[in-house]
Design a protein that fits this description.
Number of strands: 0
Oligomer: single chain
Helix content: over 70%
Largest sheet: none
Strand content: under 5%
Distance between the termini: 47 Å
Radius of gyration: 20 Å
Order of helices and strands: HHHHHHHHHHHHHHHHHHH
Length: 360
């Protein structure tokens, strides 16, 4: 059990411990606070996307696309579009485990350029995942909690996603020069096609079963199949994220029961603008996933809530799990400061644009 790699989980344990001390009699109710269908959905999806990651197919595909870059600006555009596209099916955090190591392996780039590309990849993962019900943990939760159809969710979140990508491409055009790149080396990587097709079939089955309310059966079969044929995929799945989600449900239900916290949130009228602003604000205070779980107890209008939390995940390094993963993978202390030099102006423009165009 690595404390450094799972600091958020242990922080949640610490918070829950103090909440337990304040009301120990509530512990018997903890299981009822958890939305177990969402946990089943997240667990099965994490296994499947880890299978996609380990099959090597998307790493190879990404490498082939990057080879066509002729200069830094073109490379940044390819990486932004690639990361955004992949995050719609592989979740934003898993995509970063594919594209960031790939970026760091490009020997033709200096460390400063690599850091900037990693920052843009983190933001791209956040923005691209907005459109997909399976793009990130908060979307998975909202999609399942309110039984929204897959296509309806994607259609409603398409506009803010496109706006974010356009703004991000404009920023990258200003950030990266058109300096010519030497030919990028061929990316060598083995592909496991049986694992790829199992993961593809499983992903489709999970989406369909969620729509027709057979999720528990599909989740169980997913665990069984991967345990038998690809136990390494089960072993390398982020089980701490699953446990973190369980703790988030318990912690934020306990906070919901706190009169002072609950009354403050309830004091705002449940219109789109207030929900959007609160979602954005709470994402800066407690990160966007916990903010989504907490605010879903007060508001039923999911569109401004999910737009606000997805958008809010781009401002500060701790506003989204994906940002923390990107900074961790970069292994460079300077990236913390550089991240906010790009993320803050981007997020302010993104926030103002979305608010003026889409929120009313």
């Amino acid at each position: 059990m690595n404390f450094k790699n799972n600091i958020f989980f242990f922080f949640l344990c610490f918070v829950l411990f103090f909440l337990f001390l304040s009301s120990p009699n509530k512990i018997i109710e903890y299981p009822s606070f958890v939305h177990w269908k969402t946990i089943a959905l997240i667990t099965s999806l994490l296994i499947v996307v880890n299978g996609f990651k380990q099959c090597g197919y998307f790493y190879q595909l990404s490498g082939k696309l990057i080879k066509y870059s002729k200069n830094q600006r073109q490379l940044s555009i390819i990486l932004i579009l690639l990361t955004s596209a992949l995050s719609t099916i592989l979740t934003n955090d898993v995509v970063l485990f594919i594209v960031i190591p790939l970026t760091m392996s490009i020997k033709q780039l200096n460390q400063k350029t690599i850091n900037k590309l990693i920052i843009y990849e983190a933001i791209s993962a956040n923005v691209g995942s907005t459109v997909s019900p399976i793009g990130n943990p908060q979307n998975i939760f909202i999609w399942h909690k309110w039984n929204i159809s897959f296509l309806s969710f994607a259609f409603n979140l398409l506009s803010p996603t496109v706006i974010g990508i356009i703004i991000l491409l404009f920023f990258s055009f200003l950030t990266f020069p058109s300096n010519k790149l030497e030919k990028i080396d061929k990316i060598k990587n083995k592909k496991n096609y049986p694992l790829f097709f199992l993961s593809l079939f499983s992903l489709i089955a999970i989406i369909v079963s969620t729509e027709i309310n057979y999720l528990y059966i599909t989740a169980f079969l997913t665990v069984v199949l991967y345990t038998i044929f690809y136990p390494k995929t089960i072993k390398n799945t982020d089980w701490f994220l699953v446990l973190s989600f369980i703790l988030i449900f318990i912690i934020f239900h306990l906070l919901y029961l706190n009169p002072s916290i609950s009354n403050f949130t309830k004091s705002f009228k449940a219109n789109s603008e207030n929900i959007f602003n609160l979602s954005f604000l709470y994402s800066q205070l407690i990160s966007n996933v916990p903010a989504t779980v907490f605010l879903s107890k007060f508001f039923t209008n999911y569109k401004p809530l999910i737009i606000g939390t997805n958008l809010g995940g781009n401002l500060l390094f701790f506003s989204s799990f994906a940002n923390l993963i990107a900074i961790k993978l970069a292994k460079n202390k300077k990236i913390w400061f550089d991240f906010h030099k790009i993320s803050i102006p981007f997020c302010i423009i993104y926030y103002l644009t979305v608010k003026s165009v889409l929120i009313n």
